[in-house]
Amino acid sequence: MSSPDIAEMLDKSKELDRLRKEQEEVLLEINKMHKKLQSTPEMVEKPGDSSLSKLKMLYTQAKELSESEMSISNQLLGQLDVLIPAGGAGQQRRRIEGNEQKKKRMKGDSDIPRLSPSMRNQQEFFASLKGEQVAARVAQEDGEKDEWVIVKVTHYDKETKEFEVLDEEPGEDEEGGAQRKYKLPWSHIIPFPKISDLATTQEFPPGKQVLAVYPGTTALYKATVVQARKRKTDDYTLEFDDDEEDGSLPQRLVPFNQVVALPDGHRQ
Q1: CATH of the domain at 223
Q2: Potential cystine with 229: which of 29, 51, 148, 234 (Cβ 3.0-4.6 Å)?
Q3: Which N-terminal residues, if any, form the signal peptide (predicted)?
């Protein structure tokens, strides 16, 4: 093996190390984005939010780095195949044949449709909501107002991408006080903040309009935050729209885990 050949292979090895370090950095950023989207999934529906675009860019970068790594690895393998002494031809042939079989298996496996990591995480998050109480828009699309209520998730269908939910509060117009069931898309669901995960709970400053559970009910209405909270566990002081008493809006305390971001285009 000549010195120029060795020097070239060493250069390629250094390039592989660089590519792998870059891939690790990109993967860290991807994981950060996944955690952010899992903790505040409603952010992707906000106007001007670029979270999904950033995630797409990171995946594109990861794909390009992976392809570059594969290209250099193949070049190194080619150089080694040329430089390995002929005496090892039998062993080399068996190794190559084994690799060919592996490639065939990998090719066969790749024909099976698979979800991207981001979609898998999203599906897992949706499925994890089973048994949880969430805010749900149950009114029809052509309804004059948006009706948001507390429901319990009973199932998430990965095929139809729909949630099956149960309104545990019997409706006044329901025969025998029966509980109502709905099938809803993700856009009609807002998870409530988790008491066990205060670090990722979204903070709403004074003056911010939100959607909140009206005290003593299982319905959510548009409200405005009146004052800042001192601690993450404190209740919000809110003024609900159309809640006038004696010509003024009373201030009502609502637990932080019953307050969510106001959906765009909310009709009340």
Answers
A1: 2.30.30.140
A2: 234
A3: none
